[in-house]
Amino acid sequence: MQTLIDKLPWVLVLILTVLFDPVFQGINRIMRHRDDAVGVLVGVLWILTLGLFGVGWIVDIVTMITHKTIKLFA
User: Fold this and answer.
1) Structural domain boundaries of the chain?
2) Global pTM value
3) What Cα–Cα distance (Å) separates residue 34 from each residue in 26, 41, 47, 55, 59?
4) Neighbours of 15 (CB within 10 A)
């Protein structure tokens, strides 16, 4: 499912990911999977653990740079 975040320019999404990944991408994951309990749980877990203790944050930044979209748990 496409969200409002998917319509933002890639550079803006990259900047928001670098600065606010746990909250920004956590909300993005919740919005993409609002009909799927596992997807919502991953989004909440992403926010509460600060991007899986920082590891997911780094993975999100790398995948944003290389693929221009989030691939892991998205």
Assistant:
1) 6-67
2) 0.80
3) 12, 10, 15, 24, 23
4) 13
